[in-house]
Amino acid sequence: MWKTAALSTLLADAIRHAEAGIAVSQSQQALTAKHLERLSQSPGFSDALLLNGQVPHEGERLRQPRLAATLKRLAEAGLDDFYRGELAASMARDLEAVGSPLRLADFHAYQAQQVTPLEVTLQDATLYNLPAPTQGMASLMILAIYERLKAAEPNSFEHLHGLIEATKRAFILRDQNVTDPGRVPTPLQELLSSENIGREAANIDPQHALPWPHEPAPGDTIWMGTVDSQGRAVSFIQSIYWEFGSGVVLPESGVLWQNRGISFRLILMICAAWPPAVNLFTRSTRRLPSLTMAAPWFMAPWAVKASRKPRRRFLTLCAVRHAASAGNHRTALAARAHLGKPAPT
After folding, report:
1. What is the domain count for the chain?
2. pLDDT tens digits, 21-31
């Protein structure tokens, strides 16, 4: 039986932590010190995330009373207050004061949408993910291309090479096509057709890597997910782009603003080697985020439709592939043990 909980119950722990404070972690101390020169110039950062103007030390308690008050207001007034109530008006005033182009009308115009998911058919299942502007197309394409390569042994050269090359090809097509839904140059479902997946897989050299046109960058986003025995899934990701997002903490609400606008391009092209600027900044344009719905990778019954073989087996194999591709060999071994398969040597 499905149950619901009051918003005040769901936000109670967050309110308590904001009021009473949290213990500063080692990484928070280190990252604050590392980026202090830049972050201290961001409006509101020093007041909210430093202690007496200094980098907080591990174990010290950091309190955020303004954020606690904001969460209490949401618990009482409802979440729509964030977009159309007093909280929205407060944030719009503060954002304008610090130079943001966001206005109250932008908050009011926001509306969640119900969309038709993208889908791709594999040998034993159909997988679904979200359309533009998310990276759902890339996630589905990686799995579909990789399946065509038929790499049999996890953690083998063929397995890792196949995942890496499938990811490169999916990302190249992503960068050329995924943007605001109203500006997508090629229908994303067409890119997931069996014919296109076959072409991409056939173009992978089993012995050589495709040159990558971008400088490698370190990754820093984590994802956590769980599914219970009744199929109820939780997919959790905390990502505000860079450790402290934009570094801007609004004075009235105490809300720290993200920095995902960095994914926009502000110019059409610098040189002919660049792909077309599909994520060009314009007002009200939704840009490609670095996020994708992760639950289809990890045993989400609502995201996978099995066709012939048992769903549990297929989904656990997905977990093996995802865990191994992420370098999480302990999770991969646990998934193989669940299948009754021996660990790879």
Report:
1. 1
2. 999 999 999 99
CA-to-CA separations, 81 to 75, 87, 118, 257, 296, in angstroms, rounded = 10, 6, 31, 17, 31
Mention every residue, 6+ apart, whose C-beta is less than 8 A from residue 249: 42, 43, 44, 45, 47, 48, 49, 255, 256, 257
- Among residues 283, 344, 339, 341, which one has the least CA distance to residue 315? 339
Residue 184 included in any domain: yes
Based on C-alpha coordinates, what's the Rg of the chain? Answer: 23
**Residue 58 within a domain:** no
Q: Which of these, 248, 244, 281, lies nearest to 263 by C-alpha position?
A: 281
Instruction: Give, in order, the Cα–Cα distances in Å from 50 to each of 21, 53, 134, 136, 255.
Output: 13, 5, 34, 37, 15
**Residue 333's CATH number:** 1.10.246.130
Stated length of the chain: 345
Residue-wise pLDDT for 179-189, tens only, equals 888 888 899 99
For residue 207, being part of any structural domain is answered with yes
CA distance 57 to 55: 6
Residue 332 lies in a domain: yes
User: Under a CB-based contact definition with an 8 Å cutoff, are residues 204 and 166 in contact?
Assistant: yes
234 pairs with which residues across the strands?
226
Query: Residue type for 221, please?
Result: T
Tokens at 47, concatenated:
């007041």
* Structural domain boundaries, residue 181: 118-218+292-338
Chain-centroid distance, C-alpha 116: 19
Active site members: 221
**pLDDT, tens digit (0-9, with 9 covering 90-100), for 188-211:** 999 999 999 999 999 999 999 999
186: helix, coil or strand? coil
Residue 23: its H or E element: strand 22-23
How many CB atoms are located within 10 Å of the residue 295 CB? 21
